[in-house]
Write a structure and sequence with these properties.
Blueprint: E1 8-12, H1 15-27, E2 33-37, E3 43-45, E4 48-50, H2 52-61, H3 79-86, H4 97-111, H5 116-126, E5 132-135, E6 142-147, E7 150-153, H6 154-160, E8 167-173, H7 182-190, E9 193-196, H8 201-210, H9 214-219, E10 225-228, E11 231-232, E12 235-236, H10 241-247, H11 254-260, E13 267-271, H12 278-282, E14 287-291, H13 298-317, H14 330-334
Parallel strand pairs: 1-2, 1-9, 2-5, 9-10, 10-13, 13-14
Antiparallel strand pairs: 3-4, 6-7, 6-8, 11-12
Helix pairs in contact: 1-2, 1-13, 4-5
The chain binds guanosine-5'-diphosphate (GDP) and calcium ion.
Guanosine-5'-diphosphate is lined by residues 12-17, 19, 53, 56, 198-200, 204, 228-230, 232, 236-239, 241, 293-295.
């Protein structure tokens, strides 16, 4: 697609976020896109700094993703993890052999005193990624799940316990003293639009909004702020977003997502199967934009990215209003 000089700041978590981020990277020039990624999931395993969401986005933009999972590296093997297990190490967090190289290199560069932003720039450059992928913060922020079973570090809750404990809340340790990363702060000032990728609103977008100054900057942001709903047909396409929303008392629907993003979002992109929810969303003061939002193939990712960029262009060139796109059905898109 012809680039139109629109600078987009996209905010992403892992698997859902990476899909739209990949689409956006294919329809926007490197100068037109900054992808800001959640680091609340970061954890130390085997002495190595693992940034699961940054890795998922990096591998997606580098064309390396394991298509069966949406995370990790295609064709990766797990011999090192098996060997670590034989030595008594915990192996519930799956780290592939090639994936481990990312964590070894990241940890080495961090220990040499480089910031997570600098390290990420270095890793993405070596992976041939032309677009900016940046951590939300260079300071340590750690998501903690408050559950029926006590407080759990995010990966303990998410991976080890499979999100089975009921959550009563989440906390972002370290957020109070964190700052947005330099490229994030710069993008908040200079971008024309903000796009919330279809990521988990509670534990992927939530930590980003918890970094001091971010919510305020987005509230007063001058351009369109558009979110893509991760809830489709009353369910999360994968992962625990629906379960977590229900446990926290949200309605599990696109309107429930719109309510969570009230104040930071002007429009919510919802799937054609949820078109009937548009009036309820608009009653919350959020425009509802209807299109196909399920991204199975790379063509799906490009098509949704093109729609999102179209909504942004419509807003910027359309007298302050977003033109409602003609609903794009899955069938017509493939045709
Ligand atoms: P995580 O960090 O790996 O858990 O990933 P994210 O937070 O970025 O994404 C998880 C969310 O992505 C889930 O709530 C899914 O419903 C949503 N999701 C995954 N694939 C798609 C898709 O193709 N379309 C939409 N609209 N949402 C998706
Ligand atoms: Ca994540």
């Amino acid at each position: 697609m012809a680039a139109m000089g629109t600078n987009i700041l996209a905010i992403a978590g892992g698997v859902g976020g990476a899909k739209l981020a990949l689409g956006l990277s294919r329809v926007l020039a490197p100068s037109e896109l900054t992808v800001v990624v959640n680091t609340g999931d970061d954890e130390t395993f085997h002495g190595l700094h693992v940034s699961p969401d940054l890795d998922t986005v990096m591998y997606a933009l580098a064309g390396m993703t394991n298509p069966d999972t949406g995370w990790g590296i295609r064709g990766d093997t797990f011999r090192t993890l098996e060997a670590l297990g034989r030595l008594g190490a915990e192996t519930w967090f799956r780290l592939g052999d090639a994936d481990l190289a990312t964590h070894v290199r990241r940890t080495e560069l961090l220990r040499a005193g480089r910031s997570l932003s600098e390290v990420t720039r270095e890793l993405t450059a070596h992976l041939g990624i032309a677009h900016a992928v940046v951590p939300m913060s260079d300071e340590r922020v750690r998501t903690v799940a408050l559950t029926d079973d006590g407080e759990l570090a995010f990966q303990e809750y998410f991976v080890r316990r499979g999100c089975e404990p009921r959550i009563t809340g989440v906390r972002f340790d370290g957020a109070e003293t964190a700052r947005p990363s330099p490229a994030f702060a710069e993008a908040l000032e200079s971008s024309d639009a903000i796009v919330f990728c279809p990521s988990n609103p509670i534990v992927s977008i939530g930590p980003v909004l918890a970094v001091p100054g971010v919510r305020e900057a987005i509230e007063r942001f001058g351009g369109p702020r558009i979110a893509v709903s991760p809830i489709v047909g009353g369910k999360a396409l994968r992962g625990p977003a629906a379960k977590m929303m229900a446990e926290l008392g949200d309605e599990v629907s696109c309107a429930g997502v719109a309510r969570r993003y009230a104040g930071v979002c002007d429009a919510l992109v919802i799937d054609t199967v949820d078109a009937a929810e548009a009036p309820a969303i608009e009653a919350l003061g959020v425009r509802a934009l209807v299109t196909s939002t399920v991204m199975e193939t790379d063509d799906d990712k490009d098509a949704l990215a093109r729609d999102v960029v179209g909504f942004v262009e419509g807003w910027r060139h359309g007298r302050g209003a977003i033109h409602r796109a003609l609903p794009r059905t899955r069938a017509s898109r493939r045709g």
